[in-house]
Structure formats: C-alpha cells, structure tokens
C-alpha cells in the first residue's frame, strides 16, 4: 500500500464500497421479490455472459440458458436466507456461468483430449451441485404434473404453486360445495404423489 | 377419509387459517401421535417443494420476459471483437479449407505428373534413330504383316546411318539404331543394298559393329578417312554425313563441349544440325579424320547434339572376342583427304556412309 498515494487508495476504496452497496441493494430487492431488481440484474450482467459464451464456442441461446441458470442459483441462494456476499456480485455470477459453461463444453466435447480445467472459484461448486439436485426434482415434478391431466393439474397448480385459497378455486371451477372441491383436490394430490414417487422421486 | 382430513388440517395449519385454539389442539395432536407428526412433516415438505417449483416457474417466466426486451443481435455484434471473427471463420471453414488445399495439391502434382515433369530427365535426350514408318514395331504389327503376307516389300521400319570401318566390310553405327532388329540392311547413295549382321554391340557406349554378309560384296576399297584416337579440342570445325531422309545430307558445325549429355564423358557436345536418321553417322574434323559417331541431341536445348568419341569406338573394337571376327579389323590411320577442300572431301567420303534399314 505504501506504493500508492493516500488519495488513490481512498478513491479505490470508495469505488469498491459503492459497488458493494449497489450489489446489496440488488440482493435486497430480489429477496423482497422486486421485479425491477431482477430486471436490473439481468440487463447489467447478461452482456458479460453473452461475451463469455460467444468467445468460447457458444451461441446466444447457450448464453441465455447459462445466464438464467446462474440467476436461478443466485436467486435460490438469496431467498433461502443465508447469503453472504464474499465477492462482488459480478464475480460470483461470472464464476457460476464459467463453471456451468465449461461443464457443458466438457459434456459436448467431441474431442475427449480437449478438457477444460474446472477450477473452484468462490465456492460455486457446492451451490451448483445443490442447484442441479433441485433441478432434477423439478424435472420430475414437471413430468408428474404433465401426466396428471385436467382439471387436476390446474387445481394443484393454483392451490399449491400459486397459493390461491380454496374459495377462489371453487369460484373458478364452479364448485358449489367447498367440500366437493376439497375432496377433488385431495384425490388429485394423491395421484400426483403417486406419479411423482413412482418415477423414482425422493422418499419424503 | 381420515387421511384427507389430516391433509386439510395440515394445510389449514400451515397456511395460518386456524384460530389460536384450533392451532394449540392440532399441535397437541401432533405431539401425542408420532405417526401423525410424521405425516404432517412429509406433507409439509411436499408442499414446500411444490411452492418452490411454482416460484421457479414464476422466476423463469419473469426472466424470459426480461430477455425478450433485450436486443441480443445488436448486443452480440457489439461484443464480438474483430479478431474473434477471424478465429470463428477459421473454426467454421477449416474443413472446407482442408478440402480446398487437398484439391489444389492434387491438381498441381497431378498436372506435373501428367505433363512428365517427374519423368526421367534423359527424356530430353533424343536418340536420332529415324522411324521410317510412323508405327512402332510390335508383336501385333508383326503378326498382321505375316497374316497379310506382304513379303519383302516392307521398306523397313527404322533407319539410321552407318559408316565403313575397314575396307573388308566392317561398319559402325549406334546400338540404339539396330536394337531389337530382326534383320539389318545397308544402302549407299547409289542404291546398292547389302545385308549385314551385327558382330558386336556395346550398349553402354551405344556402339554397334556390323559386317556385310552379302556374297556379292567384295571390298570398299581403301578408306579415304582416318580415325583420330586422341580427344579433339573445343571449337574444332566438324561435319557429318547422314540419312535423316532417303538422301544423304551434309551437316556442318563445331565441337562445343568435351562432355555430352549430363556430363557424359563418353561423348562430345557438338553444335550441328542433326535429325532422326543421323544416328550412327561419322563425325569428322576439318581434315577428314573421324572423331566420333553422331548419337543424339538434347530435345529442349538449341544446338546441342552429341557424338561418341572415337576413343570409345577403339575400346569397343578391342573388346570384340577374337572368335567373332572372321576377317582382320584394323582402323585406317592414314588420311588421304586432309588437303582437299570440303566438296572434294565429301565426294570421297560419301560412298563409305550408308543408310541403315532395320526390319
């Protein structure tokens, strides 16, 4: 630090502080479910990832998939609570995307000799592993819901996914008796569980 | 319907729809029944997952909406640096490049191969044997001739030149003139034809020694020219007589190098107009001494003909086995035309230079 004048050290620190506070604002916004925070995050960092993927044998669709997955990882980490920002948000997203993309390249690589070094940056590995486990569950759930058929699918989605009340669902489906609706919902739930666990879902 | 009731109660409990009294009762129920507690926990987890799944879908949807707002194409054009363009083009087109390069290389080498670039450079050397008929000798032609029973009217298929070595009927010509011959005849400018046999060949010097076997032949008489065994000097005026056509043709030139084609020390290089049919003709210096035998010329160089040095003719003669010679063969060393002018010299020489017909 002795190499720098006091002034330059000061300005440098200011810059880091300001960017960290901006990051914290974004995180706070996402935790509160603010759409404009997500928008800001997306528009701020997508170009960086687009560049990363384009320069490494990918196209814009690959970039979209990779970036959205990274946002999901970040979002899950934020909303499940214990998120501590050890690095800049930009660094974290870049590390996750880089990891995801190299992983994908290795999977798609036609030439087995060409392997990319997967370095562990900012503990993204564990985050990505958890993310992939959840993805697997969600895929099974999507499959089970797809097999459920109507009106069960809509009832389940409205009640459990969108947290609508039984009353609203009764009105939407024209059930005169709330008990009938509850019976219907219970049957649908039992079938969903059967479908979900039959396909090798996790034992709960 | 106990399960259904439990599920409904669990959901009501978790969603906070119970009154405090109901809440306490439900919690007590759970506490007292581990079975129910387990079921409640399981359903709670399942609900949490469904909710998380719903949340994930909403997030995905929100991101898709945002993504639609972004102009990815223009962003992409801004981001790709020009050097990356070159690399991407290389990656995209390297297979095409490889094919194009292969085609180009094949075309170049194919053309060179077919144009004879890789052929032996001795193809530049053309032996001056005249093909009298344009068709080459071959088994099929031979068979055809027998079938059509043409008889001896065949005028011969190759021709060259030959000249007398001694008065008693020995002659010299090139090996390539009589190579593969069935029978060989010589004819002088007066039209007299004699049958000859091949006494000896020396393919490495391209020399063949012939002998007249015709009973009608007696003697040439004394040879006017002599044979000069020592090497001649550069710039020596030389001349030759030969049969590039059915008439004797005189050619004049000079000795231009002491070695022949590709540095061949057996030959001289001479600058003299010669053509197919001149092969086997004598090369004489200005005094009328035989200094060589015309043997060939370089096809792609102007004025480069070749003649075998007399020295090698002498070596060939020495190599002839004694048994093959039924008459004495000694070279004439006494020149009787050295003081004559060229026209007189030619008049004396012309009777000793013969057309060779090969059948």
Describe the overall structure:
The complex is a heterodimer of chains A (204) and B (359). Chain A has 204 residues and is mainly alpha-helical. In chain A, 74% of the residues lie in helices and 0% in strands. Chain A contains eight helices and no strands. Chain A has helices at residues 6-31, 35-54, 60-79, 89-108, 124-148, 152-161, 166-173, 178-198. In chain A, helix 2 packs across helix 4 (89-108) and helix 5 crosses helix 8 (178-198). Residues 1-15 of chain A have low confidence and may be disordered. Chain B is α+β, with helices and mostly antiparallel strands. Chain B is built from nine helices and 15 strands. Chain B has helices spanning 2-14, 20-32, 34-69, 72-79, 82-114, 139-148, 175-178, 310-319, 342-349; strands spanning 125-127, 130-131, 158-164, 170-173, 184-187, 193-202, 207-212, 226-227, 237-242, 249-257, 267-271, 282-285, 289-298, 305-309, 353-358. In chain B, the strands form two sheets. Chain B has a six-stranded antiparallel barrel. A six-stranded antiparallel β-barrel of chain B has the order 3-4-7-6-5-15. The longest helix of chain B has 36 residues, at 34-69. Chain B is rod-shaped and about 155 Å long. Chain B starts with a helix and ends with a strand. The A-B interface holds A 35, 38-39, 42-43, 46-47, 50-51, 54-55, 57, 60, 64, 68, 71-72, 75, 79, 134, 137-138, 141-142, 156-157, 160-163, 182-183, 186, 189, 193, 204 and B 3-4, 7-8, 15, 42, 45-47, 49-57, 59-60, 62-63, 66-67, 69-70, 72-73, 75-76, 79-80, 84, 91.
């Amino acid at each position: 630090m002795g190499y720098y004048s006091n002034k330059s050290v000061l300005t440098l620190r200011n810059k880091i502080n300001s960017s960290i506070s901006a990051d914290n604002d974004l995180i706070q916004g996402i935790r509160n479910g603010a759409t404009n925070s997500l928008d800001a995050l997306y528009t701020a960092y997508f170009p960086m990832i687009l560049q990363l993927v384009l320069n490494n044998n990918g196209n814009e669709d690959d970039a979209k998939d990779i970036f959205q997955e990274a946002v999901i990882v970040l979002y899950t980490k934020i909303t499940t609570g214990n998120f501590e920002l050890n690095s800049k948000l930009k660094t974290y997203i870049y590390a996750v995307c880089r990891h995801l993309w190299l992983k994908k390249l290795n999977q798609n690589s036609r030439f087995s000799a060409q392997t990319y070094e997967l370095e562990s940056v900012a503990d993204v590995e564990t985050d990505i592993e958890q993310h992939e486990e959840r993805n697997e569950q969600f895929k099974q759930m999507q499959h089970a819901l797809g097999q459920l058929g109507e009106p069960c699918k809509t009832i389940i989605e409205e009640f459990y996914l969108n947290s609508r009340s039984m009353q609203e669902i009764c009105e939407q489906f024209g059930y005169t008796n709330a008990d009938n609706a509850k019976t219907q919902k219970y049957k649908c739930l039992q079938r969903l569980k059967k479908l979900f666990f039959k396909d090798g879902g996790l034992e709960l | 319907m106990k399960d259904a009731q439990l599920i409904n109660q669990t959901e009501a409990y978790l969603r906070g729809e119970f009154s405090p009294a109901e809440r306490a009762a439900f919690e007590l129920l759970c506490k007292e029944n581990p079975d129910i507690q387990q079921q409640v926990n399981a359903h709670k987890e399942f609900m949490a997952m469904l909710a998380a799944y719903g949340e994930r879908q909403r997030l995905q949807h929100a991101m898709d909406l945002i993504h639609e707002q972004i102009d990815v194409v223009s962003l992409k054009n801004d981001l790709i640096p020009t050097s990356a363009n070159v690399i991407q083009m290389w990656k995209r087109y390297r297979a095409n490049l490889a094919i194009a390069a292969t085609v180009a290389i094949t075309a170049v080498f194919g053309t060179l191969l077919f144009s004879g670039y890789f052929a032996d450079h001795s193809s530049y050397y053309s032996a001056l044997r005249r093909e009298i008929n344009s068709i080459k000798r071959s088994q099929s032609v031979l068979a055809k001739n027998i079938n059509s029973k043409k008889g001896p009217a065949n005028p011969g298929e190759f021709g060259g030149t030959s000249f007398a070595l001694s008065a008693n009927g020995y002659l010299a010509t090139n090996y390539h003139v009589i190579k593969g011959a069935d029978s060989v005849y010589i004819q002088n400018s007066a039209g007299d034809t004699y049958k000859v046999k091949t006494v000896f060949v020396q393919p490495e010097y391209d020399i063949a020694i012939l002998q007249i076997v015709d009973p009608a032949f007696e003697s040439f008489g004394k040879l006017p020219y002599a044979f000069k065994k020592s090497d001649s000097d550069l710039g020596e005026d030389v001349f030759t007589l030969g049969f590039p056509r059915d008439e004797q043709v005189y050619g004049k030139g000079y000795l231009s190098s002491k070695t022949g084609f590709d540095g061949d020390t057996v030959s001289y290089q001479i600058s003299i107009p010669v053509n197919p049919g001149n092969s086997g003709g004598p090369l004489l210096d200005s005094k009328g001494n035989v200094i060589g035998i015309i043997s060939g010329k370089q096809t792609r160089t102007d004025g480069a003909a070749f003649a075998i040095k007399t020295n090698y003719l002498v070596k060939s003669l020495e190599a002839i086995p004694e048994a093959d010679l039924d008459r004495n063969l000694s070279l004439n060393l006494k020149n009787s035309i050295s003081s004559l002018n060229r026209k007189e010299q030619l008049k004396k020489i012309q009777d000793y230079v013969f057309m060779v017909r090969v059948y």
